[in-house]
Design a protein that fits this description.
Distance between the termini: 83 Å
Shape: elongated
Order of helices and strands: HEEHEEEEEHEHHHEHHHEEEEEHHHHH
Strand order of the largest sheet: 3-4-2-1-10-13-12
Number of domains: 3
Number of strands: 14
Oligomer: single chain
Radius of gyration: 31 Å
């Protein structure tokens, strides 16, 4: 069999894909309390957890369990007695309570070998107390290691490396018999452009999160191949919309033969004949790495291991740590995340699936983090009991909408209006707001006066009788 590095080079040049195996399961349960403390429970493969995480003093309890299935809560999962037959199913589970999101152990970290980057879960939580209502905002992102500008550079480097290695291998095997310089020149222009087109399409689909439709992908690849002379057509001469079973024999082999006849010359400078073409095609089609390839690898990299490391780093810069080409798993095991979040109050904004007033779930493959990360976002509003007193004039059904607009009125934690609203909640009276509004200068603080007027209308408070600000 050929080395993994050679597979990656062939992938870049031929764009072949292979299937993956059963995905690893990562289950996460998070609950944010009203005071901002966070309860976190995790369940993931033992092999994915570092010793520092398993022994972290923030966990209240840890145990080894079977692979998570269904909606069974992590704390209710039964311990697993690990033996030789089930060790591959062993998962580490743990739960604890933390004062801040930053205190949660970094239980999922996937380094990019050879690169100063890593895929991880990045958490952000913000609690904003506006007196009448508390806003809770949670954002957790599964990050990837891909940087778009660097991805393009790595793509070109990998294609160049593939062509360099192919040219050197052909030279090593046939150098005294055939001249491949014209074919090499063609490849540096056309293969480079073909891979760029294909990976740009791959990136576009990933960023737009359209999902991969196999028939649509096949049709697109056929269109891209046609740009570079390989036309996969039907009896009517039109491009096909899906990959035919005999594509290799009917289209690829004839295309390669035409390229060899057009670009390869014999020692006398003449186009090579059918016998020579058959010899080269047979050499290229070998499943195992031929001695010529091994010799080139050893000469240029010292060892196959060093070559694999080089191509592996390039592949990671292109496809990240989770997802290679077109969502297929080529390197390592795929990962499936099942995350749930419970926030106080009522969810008012999320990109997940709402399963309750304050509960949201996300189920996704780690490959969804390619290339810019997969974010789990949720915002909830927790109405305080004081709001029912201060908003007594409003219909109960409309109070949440008013509180939502109230949150938008306050600019940020440093906004002086926030302290005023908190004081109103404490006193269960709008008098602190009235005092603040009366103290505004209608000329020097015209914008603030307008903002307070909007707020008064929102809260259905009387604008008259409020001193010089009552305009």
């Amino acid at each position: 069999m050929c080395s993994s590095g050679r597979k990656i080079v062939l992938l870049a040049l031929l764009i072949g894909v292979t299937g993956g195996c059963e995905p690893d399961a990562f289950k996460i349960e998070t609950r944010v309390r009203s005071d901002g403390t966070i309860e976190r429970a995790i369940c993931q493969p033992v092999t994915s957890v570092s010793e520092a995480v398993t022994k972290h003093d923030g966990w209240l309890k840890t145990r080894i369990v079977d692979k998570p299935t269904g909606r069974t809560a992590i704390r209710r999962m039964k311990p697993l007695v690990v033996n030789a037959t089930n060790k591959d199913k062993a998962h580490f589970s743990a739960w604890g309570r933390f004062a801040r999101a930053a205190d949660i152990p970094e239980h999922f970290v996937l380094p990019a070998e050879g690169l100063d980057r890593q895929g991880k879960l990045d958490r952000r939580y913000h609690r904003r107390d506006l007196g009448l209502v508390v806003e809770h905002t949670w954002r957790e992102t599964l990050t990837d290691v891909v940087e778009l500008d660097d991805r393009r550079r790595a793509r070109d480097e990998l294609v160049k490396l593939g062509i360099d290695m192919a040219a050197a291998t052909l030279e090593h095997q046939f150098g005294k018999t055939y001249d491949f310089s014209s074919l090499e020149k063609w490849s540096r222009t056309n293969v480079t452009a073909f891979v760029a087109d294909l990976l740009d399409y791959d990136l576009q689909v990933a960023i737009q999160r359209r999902g991969y439709d196999d028939s649509q992908m096949q049709a697109k690849v056929i269109v891209i191949l046609a740009r570079y002379g390989l036309k996969i057509t039907g009896p009517n001469g039109q491009l096909l919309q899906e990959w035919p079973k005999d594509a290799g024999e009917k289209f690829f082999v004839p295309f390669v033969r035409r390229l060899l006849k057009q670009h390869v010359r014999d020692s006398s400078g003449k186009p090579i004949g059918e016998e020579a073409i058959a010899e080269i095609v047979a050499f290229v089609n070998q499943e195992s790495a031929p001695p010529a390839w091994q010799a080139v690898v050893k000469k240029r990299f010292g060892s196959e291991k060093a070559f694999d490391a080089r191509t592996g780093r390039l592949a990671t810069r292109i496809w990240g740590v989770y997802r290679p080409l077109f969502g297929m798993t080529l390197f390592g095991t795929s990962r499936q995340f099942d995350a749930s979040l419970r926030l106080p109050g009522q969810v008012v904004e999320t990109n997940g699936k709402i399963t309750g007033a304050g509960t949201v779930v996300w189920q996704f493959a780690a490959s969804a983090a390619f290339p810019l990360g997969f974010g789990m976002e949720c915002r909830s509003l927790e109405a305080r009991e004081q709001s029912a007193v201060l908003l007594a004039k409003l219909k109960p059904a409309s109070r949440l909408g008013v509180l939502l607009k109230l949150v938008d009125v306050v600019d940020g934690d440093s906004d002086p209006l926030m302290a005023v609203l908190r004081s109103c909640a404490t006193k269960k009276s709008w008098s602190p707001l009235e005092v603040y509004r009366r103290g505004l200068d209608p000329k020097k603080q015209a914008n603030e006066v307008k903002r307070l007027n909007r707020l008064y209308r929102l809260l259905e408070l009387p604008l008259s009788g409020s001193g010089r600000a009552a305009t």
